[in-house]
Every structure is written in structure tokens, then in C-alpha cells.
Design a protein that fits this description.
about 300 residues, alpha/beta
């Protein structure tokens, strides 16, 4: 179990492959806010990942993430649903119900802007582990933001649920539009805005867009999926490659609106779980215990409304 302690100097401890953030005899707990679970052997199959993906097309279940947690000292996780089938939300909730202390939340997937949305949201929101939705598809293209979409986003905010945004189909201007129109909706941009990280200095246009979207206090940014965003396999493992992007995001959002996530098992395309963690930690470690606590668990707990089990 997790025991919180007073401020002490930070050091990174590596025991074999296991990682913990050590503060004397205690540790900073880690909530990984971005993992996917699915079973490619189900009779109905899975809509993602595709069968052609030789790395990801395999059963990825709670027992497999349990191994990650035990090996790397991850305390808990928020699962992000990658399927567009409504009933798959229930499948995940049922899969992890045996361990509510570790699997503390689900960011679900429901068809925003449809007649079925309200009923489905009301149903799943009855489960306290259902913390919000991820917006990942964009039916209608440029005409996506219909009155029905705004109606459903308003309902999400009224229920005090959250909105993750996968940036493959959306851009920072879209997020700014949502944040301005829905100031009570908590929004979390995934994977460092979805930018392709090249190791070069951040472009001025992107940096300005990040600064603008961060000006809305209801918008947060997930420090996640960095190996995926490198576009390389294996991904670079040196901090200098990612540091210019980390700096822009941190300067814009500050210590209170950054949230850690891995994007496991997609991380497997770029390297090992602990290799990505260590790159992120190397950047934030010099900022001290308070910032690390916010990045690794406090901001996630506040944003998603989830709690860690402790004694």
C-alpha cells in the first residue's frame, strides 16, 4: 500500500528493471492515466488494433498490465477505451472489477452527437469508475461540431465527467473552441498534443497554439505516448530529443495541468515501459517533489476524480 511522507530530497532508484521515485523510506505513487486493454481472441474480434499490426495485435489484458505494475511500481491506472463499440465499455469494466484499487477509472468511448448518446451516458455514468469519454473520431469532417455534438458535450459537463481528446482527428484550435464554449468541461489533450516529435526546436506556430489553448483553465495536457510521437521504432531514448517539446508544454500548462500517461501497450513499438518513463522523469525530476507528485498522481486524481488506495 502507499504511505505518504514529508518532503525529502528526490532520487531515482533503479533496481534491475524496476523503477520507483524514492523519498527515503517512502515513494511517490504513479497513476498511469493512459493504457488500453483488449482481447483479440474474442469471438467478435476487436476494431483496434488491426490484424496487420504485428506488435499490438495480441490479447492485452489486466493480467498483462499487472505485470507492468509489479515490475515498475505503478500504483494504479486509468484505462482509455480504444473501441468504438458501446458494449466494449462494459467489457472493460467487467474485466477489471476484481481489482478496483489498481484499475480506478475508465475513459470510455460513446457516439457523441447521436440519438443514443444520452441514454448510453446515463447508463455508464452510474459506475463511478466511468470517469469520462475520449473524443477520437470525427464523423462529418469539418462539419463535426453540430448542435447535437454541443448538446452531448454539455451533458458530459453537467455530469461532471471529463473529455480526453485524441489529436489525430482534431487540432488545438478545435480544443480551444470547445474550451471557450464549455468552460465547465474538463478537457485533457492526449499525447503532448499529437505533435510528431523530431528532436528539433519547437516550431513557433505550434508553440503559439499550445500557449493559446493553455490559456483556458479547463484544459490540461497528458505527457504520454512520447515514443509513439517520435514516429520511430525503436524510439530515441535520450531526453534531448524530446526536451524542446516538454519545455513548451510545461511552460504553457504549468505544474497543475500536466498529467502522466504511458499509452501502453503502444509504447512497445518504441521501447520498454521503463525506458519511456525514465525519459519523462529525467526532465521533471529537477523540478522537485511537489511537481513530480502533481505529474504522477495528484493532477490525475483531481482531474478524473479518482482516488488511490492507501493506509
Amino acid at each position: 500500500m502507499i504511505r505518504m511522507i514529508s518532503n525529502l530530497p528526490v532520487r531515482l532508484v533503479v533496481l534491475g528493471a524496476a523503477i520507483s521515485l524514492s523519498f527515503g523510506c517512502g515513494s511517490i505513487p504513479v497513476i498511469d492515466t493512459h493504457i488500453h486493454l483488449y482481447d483479440t481472441t474474442r469471438s467478435e474480434g476487436v476494431p483496434w488494433p488491426p490484424t496487420t499490426d504485428k506488435v499490438l495485435y495480441r490479447p492485452v489484458l489486466s493480467k498483462h498490465f499487472d505485470e507492468i505494475c509489479e515490475k515498475h511500481g505503478v500504483a494504479a491506472t486509468v484505462i482509455v477505451e480504444a473501441s468504438d463499440r458501446a458494449e466494449d465499455n462494459q467489457w472493460v469494466l467487467d474485466l477489471v472489477k476484481h481489482n478496483p484499487d489498481r484499475y480506478i477509472g475508465l475513459v470510455g468511448s460513446l457516439p457523441i452527437g447521436t440519438d443514443e448518446f444520452a441514454g448510453l451516458l446515463n447508463r455508464f455514468a452510474k459506475d463511478k469508475r466511468f470517469v469520462g469519454l475520449r473524443m477520437r473520431q470525427r464523423p462529418g469532417g469539418e462539419d463535426f461540431f453540430t448542435d447535437a455534438v454541443w448538446r452531448d458535450l454539455k451533458l458530459l459537463a453537467e455530469k461532471e465527467l471529463t473529455l480526453d481528446v485524441l489529436m489525430s482527428q482534431f487540432d488545438l484550435a478545435d480544443v480551444s473552441q470547445i474550451a471557450e464554449r464549455m468552460p465547465d468541461l474538463k478537457i485533457l489533450i492526449n499525447h503532448l498534443t499529437g505533435l510528431t516529435i523530431t528532436g528539433e526546436p519547437a516550431e513557433a506556430e505550434w508553440s503559439a497554439a499550445v500557449k493559446k489553448v493553455a490559456s483556458y483553465p479547463n484544459v490540461h495536457c497528458k505527457v504520454s505516448g512520447i515514443f509513439q510521437r517520435s514516429g520511430q521504432s525503436p524510439a530515441p531514448k535520450r531526453l534531448s530529443y524530446y526536451e524542446p517539446i516538454f519545455k513548451v508544454v510545461y511552460d504553457a500548462f504549468g505544474e497543475d495541468r500536466i498529467i502522466y500517461g504511458s499509452n501502453w501497450p503502444v509504447t512497445d513499438r518504441g521501447g520498454e515501459y521503463d525506458e519511456q518513463f525514465k525519459v519523462i522523469n529525467e526532465f521533471f525530476k529537477p523540478m522537485g517533489r511537489s511537481v513530480l507528485e502533481k505529474l504522477y498522481w495528484k493532477n490525475a486524481s483531481k482531474f478524473y476524480g479518482v482516488k488511490l488506495s492507501s493506509n
